[in-house]
């Protein structure tokens, strides 16, 4: 195993770190969840996207889907998440981690009676912000427009009759 090809070729380091104070986080809210932008594709130069998701009790997350171009990782900060790993539902608790490579089936939700807080990381970075901000609007427009929107954002949902969401 080797490191990727160098992207920084200068002889000395650069002053380029980006600090984002907690109150400056952008958030997208729905009735049962809030998603906080910690690091976006734009702020990381496309390296990754990192988001904190706070879900209320019994909150629905995402049904079974996969991504063709990005991996997705889940890290549980507090509470319990129901995570689908493509084979079975797992109850994940504080400190648990799930990595889903590109093409891997996955889903998530909060089946508990308590709040859930977790980190989502996408790699490489992708323009997920538009997806998070507009998916509810496209859902209201109907299944054809929603499907086209999801596919444009590298989200390919599996028919629930396949058993993953039962």
What's the helix and strand layout?
Layout: E1 26-29, E2 33-39, E3 49-55, E4 60-66, E5 71-78, E6 80-84, E7 89-93, E8 97-100, E9 106-109, E10 116-123, H1 128-141, H2 143-152, E11 156-157
Antiparallel strand pairs: 1-2, 2-3, 3-10, 4-9, 4-11, 5-8, 5-10, 6-7, 6-9
Describe this structure in words.
With 166 residues, the chain is mainly beta. It has a single domain, classed as Jelly Rolls. The protein has helices at 128-141, 143-152; strands spanning 26-29, 33-39, 49-55, 60-66, 71-78, 80-84, 89-93, 97-100, 106-109, 116-123, 156-157. The protein has a 6-stranded antiparallel beta sheet with strand order 1-2-3-10-5-8, with helices on one face. A hairpin with a 4-residue loop joins strand 6 and strand 7. Helix 1 runs antiparallel to helix 2 (143-152). The longest helix is centred in the C-terminal third of the chain and has 14 residues, at 128-141. Residues 162-166 have low confidence and may be disordered.
């Amino acid at each position: 195993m080797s490191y990727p090809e160098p992207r920084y070729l200068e002889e000395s380091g650069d002053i380029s770190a980006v600090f984002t104070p907690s109150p400056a986080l952008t958030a997208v809210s729905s009735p049962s969840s809030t998603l906080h932008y910690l690091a976006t594709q734009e702020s990381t130069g496309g390296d990754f996207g990192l988001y904190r998701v706070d879900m209320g009790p019994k909150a629905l997350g995402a049904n079974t889907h996969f991504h063709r171009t990005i991996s997705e990782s889940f890290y549980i900060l507090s509470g319990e998440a129901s995570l689908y790993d493509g084979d079975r539902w797992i109850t994940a608790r504080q400190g648990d981690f799930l990595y889903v490579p590109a093409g891997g089936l996955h889903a998530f939700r909060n089946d508990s009676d308590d709040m859930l807080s977790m980190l989502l990381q996408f790699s490489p970075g992708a323009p997920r912000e538009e997806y998070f901000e507009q998916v509810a609007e496209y859902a209201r427009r109907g299944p054809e427009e929603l499907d086209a929107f999801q596919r444009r954002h590298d989200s390919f949902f599996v028919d629930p009759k396949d058993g993953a969401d039962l």
